Amino acid sequence: MPAPGTPHRSDVLVIGWGLAGLVAAGEAAAAGKTVTIVDQEPRSNLGGQAFWSFGGLFFVDSPEQRRFGISDSLELARQDWLGTAGFDRDEDAWPRRWAEAYLDFAAGEKRPWLRSKGVGFFPVVGWAERGGYNALGPGNSVPRFHITWGTGPGLVAPFRAALETAEADGLVTVLPRHRVTGLTTRDGHVVGATGDILSPSAADRGVATSREVVGAFEIEASATIVSSGGIGGNHDLVRRNWPARLGTPPDHMVTGVPAYVDGSMQAVSDAAGARLINGDRMWHYVEGLHNWDPIWPAHGIRILPGPSSVWLDATGLRLPPPLYPGFDTLGTLEHLRGTGHDHSWFVLSQRIVEKEFTLSGSEQNPDLTGRDVALLMRSRLGKGAAGPVQAFLDNGEDFVVRDSLDDLIAGMRAMPGGDVLDPARVRAEIEARDREMDNDFTKDAQVAMLRSARAYRGDRLIRTASPHRLLDPDAGPLIAVKLHVLTRKSLGGIETDLQSRALGADGAPVPGLYAAGEASGFGGGGVHGYRALEGTFLGGCLFSGRSAGRAAAAAV
């Protein structure tokens, strides 16, 4: 850094070093531009929220899909995206253009571009957000969820390496513990940023850090890219933006992102003239668990559920079709917020937990994250629950494991809030569902969906348990899981054009200002509309970060 009081100078300033910021900085540096990248956290957090992810990516008509006999097309993906997004606002003009551009990217250049960087993919394609409505409704018509070999860290690695190479070459300056508090404007142009230097920290990745201010900084740049993430770590901001269509916000939530995902750059960007849109669109999960071994405050983990568990509300009433595990995240959230309770329940068997329970996050999947084929074979195809799942069964406060249904219900009722559970209703729901398993015919839509899912080889192989009665002693013991709302993604943000230029209230670009990643609603201020198809968040960071870095470099 220059001497105190002298502004640091670079061609491009990137605010936030998550995946979008790393990609943007790397693209600008590859174009020969000098880049400064700042973040309020210590360097141990380079890669941001993406590092903690499962590494899911949305591709269209990929080699992995074709090997499993999945017939996909750009037309089918567009039908699914638009049916899921539900664009219906004047503000959706740019988000819809971003959606079209992203679909072209996902069906074309995205996979070979990542492969050229050494990113590989697990061969079995997952089927997330299955929908269950009609063909024009929300959901993926076919499996499209591709898991990065190495999960989040494996996806971050090549972009981090490129940044560090450019840093060694003198093109990139990395400034940890620099919190931006203002964007500098001159004659209507954004020409850099000012902010606080925070006290040094040796904290491990993800751990909450001090906000003690020890100095100030000023950075001048010809182009500034905001890639500071969303609001999921700030429950007050989540509740303030909570949409009425999803009912009242929960009193109790668990947190799926570190505390630094605080939305602090929203007000800063707004003050510089950027237009924030679709702030009431958000993506929170309803299968959240309290992490028995937390890293950040209120740390929650999401179950990535297979389709077999019976889903009950807090009173014991089974959720209506098609609100089954893995089918419609926000539809389920809306329904559960109407019950007046902050929790719900999965009821399942040991056989189901062994086959279907995967936990989201790189740290919860050591086989995929560590690229350990032997461990993967044991954990995904062997007997017993995977190690991280078993750790939750043994230590997690949200799990009840019993040999009989009566004892299971008693254990559920003994948990906080369990007194609203109706034992007779739970028994009726479980026994009725089990009767539907006694022959090949059924009127139970979830049972029909379950049998249909097993027609897909990937589900049958590693994702969906063989249909059985929950009360079959050979499938036991019985398991109940108390589920909570888990905060995660912002679907709205800074409105941008297809060059990632931040737009003002008049619809014109704010000179010198760009936005990428979750800060831009993953592109355009809301590329997902109301709902997402999964595997599209990391991809949105890649696509918008690449766009922002290239456009900023071309402009300076």
Question: Which labels suit this protein?
Answer:
single chain; 556 residues; alpha+beta; FAD/NAD(P)-binding domain; eight-stranded mixed sheet
Task: Describe the protein's architecture and organization.
This is Putative oxidoreductase. Keywords: Flavoprotein, Oxidoreductase. Residues 11-538 form the FAD-dependent oxidoreductase 2 FAD-binding domain. One of its GO terms (molecular function) is steroid dehydrogenase activity, acting on the CH-CH group of donors. The structure is a single chain. This protein is an alpha+beta fold and 556 residues long. The chain folds into two domains: 9-228 and 263-281 and 491-555, FAD/NAD(P)-binding domain; 289-486. Helix content is 32%, strand content 21%. It is built from 18 helices and 20 strands. Strands 1, 2, 5, 6, 7, 8, 19 and 20 form an eight-stranded mixed sheet that branches. Helix 1 runs parallel beside helix 6 (151-168). The model has no long low-confidence stretch (mean pLDDT 96).
> How many domains make up the 3D coordinates?
2
Evaluate the radius of gyration: 23 Å
Given this structure, which CATH class of the largest domain is correct?
Answer: Alpha Beta
CATH topology of the largest domain: FAD/NAD(P)-binding domain
On the 0-100 scale, what is the average pLDDT? 96
Sheet bearing the most strands, described? 8 strands, mixed
The beta-strand count equals: 20
Give the helix/strand class: alpha+beta
* Share of residues in helices: 25-40%
CATH superfamily of the largest domain: FAD/NAD(P)-binding domain
- Gross morphology: globular
Report the span from N to C terminus: 22 Å
Q: What portion of the residues fall into strands of 2 or more residues?
A: 15-25%
**What is the number of helical segments per DSSP (H or I, 4+ residues)?**
18
Low-confidence sequence ranges: none
CATH architecture title of the largest domain: 3-Layer(bba) Sandwich
Keywords: Flavoprotein, Oxidoreductase
Domain FAD-dependent oxidoreductase 2 FAD-binding: 11-538
Organism: Microbacterium thalassium
GO molecular function: steroid dehydrogenase activity, acting on the CH-CH group of donors
